[in-house]
UniProtKB/TrEMBL annotation:
Name of one Pfam family that matches: Aminotran_5
InterPro entries for the chain: Aminotrans_V_dom (IPR000192), Aminotrans_V_PyrdxlP_BS (IPR020578), PyrdxlP-dep_Trfase (IPR015424), PyrdxlP-dep_Trfase_major (IPR015421), PyrdxlP-dep_Trfase_small (IPR015422), SP_NH2Trfase/AEP_transaminase (IPR024169)
PROSITE patterns given in the database record: AA_TRANSFER_CLASS_5 (PS00595)
Cofactor (UniProt): pyridoxal 5'-phosphate
Keyword set, alphabetical order: Aminotransferase, Pyridoxal phosphate, Transferase
GO biological process: glycine biosynthetic process, by transamination of glyoxylate
Keyword flag Glycosyltransferase: no
Species assigned in the record: Aminithiophilus ramosus
Protein name: Alanine--glyoxylate aminotransferase family protein
UniProt keyword Transferase present: yes
GO MF annotations in UniProt: alanine-glyoxylate transaminase activity; L-serine-pyruvate transaminase activity
Length: 393
């Protein structure tokens, strides 16, 4: 039998749209002894994980769990449990993941009222409010707080008030925001919020945190029809995460070890300190890029602190730029999606990857790569401006 060479995975700096770098203590947690998913020790870990997750979501919601799967599984779980065939829902689209939410809702049999904005822009509140007023029968409004395809941050304060005044539920995608900025679940009464383990929470991909308000839980419990997905059916998953511990699926035990450890790191740093770190490093990155004469297509007040879209200079090929960053500097960044494909790269500063050193390292590597590609930039000014922001100037 042919012997295989030992696997030697090259370490790379993950500065793309996810996954983000994972700390050693989280990786070590993955290697702890596997237990049965109904073992008393594992059940105790589930309880602690729920407590930590509620703190991270800033909520007291009883139904706060992790779903097996990535952020898209969280999106699907949110939709299939709350939406029934024939429902009307209003869903905003300012990028690829808003479009995906619309697609998932349509697959649930809903009539989807689409409210759109150009790539790189936030949804206009007045247009969304008009849709809410025009469709009082709508069950929910779905929005992406952190649009991963564009780096746009959608402010939710006024929207949440309008949605609840209309008696609707508010569904929020927080995949690229949870753990890196405020996700005000209880403050704004967000009804259904999902995220992903692999972004600002600093855990490997494979889990989707999810929280539902008591209003949303009542909607799930009072459905006229069964949830169309057996695997994502919260009426059964609730029984596993609650005291009953009813068997539903074999939980990804070692992934929950890692997730628990990642949430402990979030708790130790403190949410406000963590948000401030993500913001400070993002602003340093923006200052450095602008000092190079490069264009950021999203207005500063609308930018995510966890993910930045950078417009490519004329004549710079997206694929070659990303390939050279990887081959020469072992740095991963993301390509553009949707209308931004081939026009931007996406730079993530998430979780333990959001550091001052990574900002300066990326700016230096980007400047060297652009110079080799025939587009010289002023790296000295870029580093100076970034360091000024890092120093608080």
């Amino acid at each position: 039998m042919e012997s295989r060479r030992p696997r030697r995975t090259r370490e790379k700096l993950l500065l793309g749209p996810g996954p983000s770098p994972v700390e050693g203590r989280v990786l070590r947690a993955l290697a702890e002894p596997t237990l049965g998913h109904l073992d008393g020790d594992f059940v105790a870990l589930m309880d602690e994980t729920q407590e930590l997750l509620r703190k991270t979501f800033q909520t007291s919601n009883a139904l706060t769990v992790t779903m097996p799967g990535t952020g898209s599984a969280g999106m699907e779980a949110a939709c299939v449990n709350v939406i029934e065939r024939g429902d009307t829902v209003i869903i905003g689209d300012q990028g690829v993941f808003g479009q995906r939410m619309q697609d998932v809702a349509e697959r649930c049999g809903a009539t989807v009222i689409k409210v759109s904005a150009p790539f790189g822009k936030t949804l206009p509140e007045e247009t969304l409010f008009e849709a809410i007023d025009s469709h009082p029968e709508a069950k929910l409004v779905g929005l992406v707080q952190a649009e991963t395809s564009t780096g746009v941050l959608q402010n939710l304060d006024a929207i949440a008030a309008k949605v609840h005044e209309a008696g609707m539920l508010l569904l929020v995608d927080a995949v690229t925001s949870l753990g890196g900025m405020e996700v005000p679940v209880d403050r704004l009464g967000l009804d259904i919020v999902y995220s992903g383990s692999q972004k600002c929470l600093g855990c490997p991909p494979g889990l989707a945190p999810l929280t539902l308000s008591s209003r949303a839980v009542e909607v799930v419990r009072s459905r006229k029809t069964k949830v169309q997905s057996w695997y994502l059916d919260l009426t059964m998953i609730m029984r596993y995460w609650e005291q009953e511990r009813f068997y539903h699926h074999t939980a990804p035990v070692n992934m929950l070890y890692a997730f628990n450890e990642a949430l402990r790191i979030v708790d130790e740093e403190g949410l406000e300190s963590r948000w401030a770190r993500h913001r400070r490093n993002a602003e340093a990155l923006w200052a450095g890029l602008e000092a190079m004469g490069l264009t950021l297509p999203v207005a500063k007040e609308d930018r995510l602190p966890s993910l930045t879209c950078l417009a490519l200079p004329e004549g710079i090929d997206d694929g070659r730029l990303r390939r050279e960053l990887m081959e020469r500097h072992a740095i991963e960044v993301g390509s553009g999606l949707g209308e931004f494909r081939g026009r931007v790269i996406r730079v993530g500063l998430m979780g333990s990857g959001s550091t001052a050193n990574n900002v300066l390292l990326f700016l230096s590597a980007l400047a060297a790569t652009l110079r080799r590609m025939g587009h010289p930039v002023d790296v000295a000014s870029a580093l100076e401006r970034a360091e000024e922001r890092l120093d608080g100037d």
